[in-house]
């Protein structure tokens, strides 16, 4: 496969048009057969449900080249399942796991020249999403929907090493206890932009959101789950019904327990105990793990012993093991790597 001529290491995380994307429409009570198209634009009814009442859900996953030359995707079945859960919560017709995987495979194969070569650290980021395309004006679920998947090549997340981040404890809330924090919907991001911009203006990389009911427990950032390592090398991740179930976090918990032999615990984590942890990181598909060096709570600085120069040792082991599994250097648990080509 002849690859397109890109400087893979420096393409960054930006939208870059690839030749083919997948489209399927839901009309008359059923999903129609999907197809590939070169048209990256979407023409919508002026009163489409997505435009008026924000009925939309999405996913994010990566396809990349392994050492032995295969193009693979990491646990795409979990993205398919999560998108079904998200769709149900927003009263949208679920797009089946089989159809989801078929669409992902079709997009990757059709854009194989845009899947970065092995060893570049880059990947083809895939964005499946679904939105209400039919008109609504009274508040109700739409009658028509569109499912799409496009791919865009993205560079290695950390250029020149992973610099630890500084987080601030936000005064805003991300999710209500029985709200939509546990589903991957664009609406959760729309309302996080204001606190995100504010955090940046104040010199922070990301917000930590607390549980909105009591504002005492740590939830997550705007787009990544949080993990902590105790001084006894135990991996702790916050447990809450309003956290997005990150596939990276779930994979990390498995790796910590089964590959690294660490104790793992999912439990509510109080903000007041954060200062007792040895390491902290953010996890998600884009960065795998971004180390956190410091959390600032209204002027009070919590500095992790791992410091502001590099990842903590356990975070580094988790990162190396997961990326090793993804690249085919370490044997993967059964079903984690889907070979596409
Ligand atoms: C997508 C997302 C994550 C990360 O999930 P992954 O499956 O690991 O990519 C974490 N938090 C939020 C709010 C998200 O939308």
Automatic annotation (TrEMBL):
GO biological process: isoleucine biosynthetic process; L-leucine biosynthetic process; L-valine biosynthetic process
Domain of life: Bacteria
Known pathway: Amino-acid biosynthesis; L-valine biosynthesis; L-valine from pyruvate: step 4/4; Amino-acid biosynthesis; L-leucine biosynthesis; L-leucine from 3-methyl-2-oxobutanoate: step 4/4; Amino-acid biosynthesis; L-isoleucine biosynthesis; L-isoleucine from 2-oxobutanoate: step 4/4
Signal peptide: none
UniProt keywords, alphabetically: Aminotransferase, Pyridoxal phosphate, Transferase
E.C. number(s) listed in UniProt: 2.6.1.42
N6-(pyridoxal phosphate)lysine: residues bearing it: 184
Pfam families: Aminotran_4 (PF01063)
The reaction(s) this protein catalyses: L-isoleucine + 2-oxoglutarate = (S)-3-methyl-2-oxopentanoate + L-glutamate; L-leucine + 2-oxoglutarate = 4-methyl-2-oxopentanoate + L-glutamate; L-valine + 2-oxoglutarate = 3-methyl-2-oxobutanoate + L-glutamate
CDD domains: BCAT_beta_family
GO molecular function annotation: branched-chain-amino-acid transaminase activity
Cofactor(s) recorded in Swiss-Prot or TrEMBL: pyridoxal 5'-phosphate
UniProt family annotation: Belongs to the class-IV pyridoxal-phosphate-dependent aminotransferase family.
Protein name: branched-chain-amino-acid transaminase
Species of the source: Megasphaera paucivorans
């Amino acid at each position: 496969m002849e690859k397109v001529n890109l400087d893979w290491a420096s393409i960054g995380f930006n939208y870059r048009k690839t030749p083919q994307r997948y489209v399927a429409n839901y009309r008359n009570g059923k999903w129609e057969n999907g197809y590939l198209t070169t048209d990256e634009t979407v023409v919508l009814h002026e009163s489409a449900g997505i435009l008026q009442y924000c009925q939309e859900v999405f996913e994010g996953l990566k396809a990349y080249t392994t050492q032995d030359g295969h193009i693979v995707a990491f646990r795409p079945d979990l993205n398919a399942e999560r998108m079904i859960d998200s769709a149900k919560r927003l009263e949208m017709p679920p797009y089946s796991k089989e159809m989801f995987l078929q669409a992902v495979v079709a997009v990757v194969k059709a854009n194989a020249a845009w899947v970065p070569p092995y060893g570049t650290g880059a990947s083809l980021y895939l964005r499946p999403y679904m939105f209400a395309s039919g008109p609504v004006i009274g508040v109700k679920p739409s009658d028509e929907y569109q499912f799409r998947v496009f791919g865009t090549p993205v560079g290695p997340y950390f250029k020149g090493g992973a610099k630890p981040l500084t987080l601030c404890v936000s005064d805003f809330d991300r999710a209500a206890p029985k709200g939509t924090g546990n589903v991957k919907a664009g609406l959760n991001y729309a309302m996080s932009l204001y606190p995100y911009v504010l955090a940046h203006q104040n010199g922070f990389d990301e917000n930590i959101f607390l549980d909105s009911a009591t504002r005492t427990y740590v939830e997550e950032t705007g787009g990544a789950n949080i993990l902590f390592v105790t001084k006894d090398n135990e991996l702790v991740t916050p447990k809450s019904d309003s956290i997005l179930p990150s596939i990276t976090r779930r994979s990390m918990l498995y790796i910590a327990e089964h590959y690294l032999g660490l104790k793992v615990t999912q439990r509510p984590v109080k903000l007041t105990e954060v200062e007792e942890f040895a390491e902290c990181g953010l996890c998600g598909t884009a960065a795998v793990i971004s180390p956190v060096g410091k959390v600032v709570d209204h002027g009070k600085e919590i500095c992790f012993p791992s410091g502001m120069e590099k990842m903590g040792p356990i975070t580094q082991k988790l990162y190396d093991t997961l990326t090793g599994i993804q690249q085919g250097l370490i044997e993967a648990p059964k079903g984690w790597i889907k070979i596409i080509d």
